[in-house]
Amino acid sequence: MTFSHAHLLGIEPLAPADITAILDLADEYVALNRRDVKHADALKGLTQINMFFENSTRTQASFELAGKRLGADVMNMAMQASSIKKGETLIDTAMTLNAMHPDLLVVRHPHSGAVDLLAQKVRCAVLNAGDGRHEHPTQALLDALTIRRAKGRLHRLNIAICGDIAHSRVARSNLLLLGKMENRVRLIGPPTLMPAQMQDFGVEVYDDMREGLKDVDVVMMLRLQKERMDGGFIPSEREYYHRYGLDGEKLAYAKEDAIVMHPGPMNRGVEIDGEIADDINRSVIQDQVEMGVAVRMAAMDLLARNLRARRAEAVEGA
Fold it and tell me: What catalytic activity is recorded (predicted)?
């Protein structure tokens, strides 16, 4: 299994073989997580610190569960009450972390590039749990695993990403990953929530849901990122749902066996109709949550192998 990276900061640096390596190992961890005894020892003896500068439910719980199931000592740092709030710089935080000798550092930060800066300053493996509008690599990987298991492949599919593209790091990471795996990607949303020159990314752009959803295999809905909006991007939530919310009438334009996805948390009646979200024949939203734990287990396992290998080489060379 080939995966030579020291960190997981984004999808951009990954080759298709790297993506496949993570997904193949994650498949094994899906099986482990469905057993009565869900523990392994890939991270035994290692310390994992979760630093979330933004609120999170699914991602933080998923990383915590993943680390504990692999045998790591897991610590969650309450960053809302941290020294950062008292004026400490990110660099000083990195120095403090180095003194604690962690092995794996999971970071979510509101500013793009902050996780990369930390990775340059700490002596451990860093995983990006979302940085600003930049990337959310493990979300794209868990989405990819969900698609691959539902469709039997992760290439040459027609995939629509719908909604608030402009503010979404999930959309960016998925665009990168799905493009690397040779899929045809469509972006659907109002012009106010669509970044300029998106056609340059090799995608098709639509502002009409029915036209954009025609004959797609996968419908990926996005949350309206109201916390990142500083103006009137939509007339009203009611109008947004009427034009861009996924309901049965709009979904009928997709293929009969098209699957429906959403990274969560969902705003029912805004981005997606509740009946569609709960339809076990179409919705794979709960599968995404399950795949999230397995993907994060796989990513930390692979990074820990590389960390141990580098440390062993350093000892031999000393």
Answer: carbamoyl phosphate + L-aspartate = N-carbamoyl-L-aspartate + phosphate + H(+)
Q: Is 305 known to sit in a ligand binding site?
A: no
Confidence of residue 43 (pLDDT cuts 50, 70, 90): very high
Instruction: Please tell me the least confidently modeled range out of 78-92, 129-143, 257-271, 274-288.
Output: 78-92
265 known member of a binding site? yes
- What does the domain layout of the chain look like in residue ranges? 7-135+289-317, 137-285
Query: Does 308 carry a binding-site annotation?
Result: no
**Do the annotations mark residue 136 as ligand-binding?**
yes
**Residue 233: its pLDDT value, please?**
64
The closest of 132, 150, 129, 177 to 282, measured between CA atoms, is 150
Report the alpha-carbon distance of residue 213 to residue 246 in Å, rounded: 10
Q: Does 47 show up as a binding residue in the annotation? A: no
Q: How far apart are CA 301 and CA 67, in angstroms?
A: 9
Among 206, 218, 214, residue whose Cα is nearest residue 144: 218
Tell me if 108 is assigned to a ligand binding site. Answer: yes
Query: Any binding-site annotation on 149?
Result: no
Tell me: is residue 132 an annotated ligand-binding position. Answer: no
58 assigned to a ligand binding site: yes
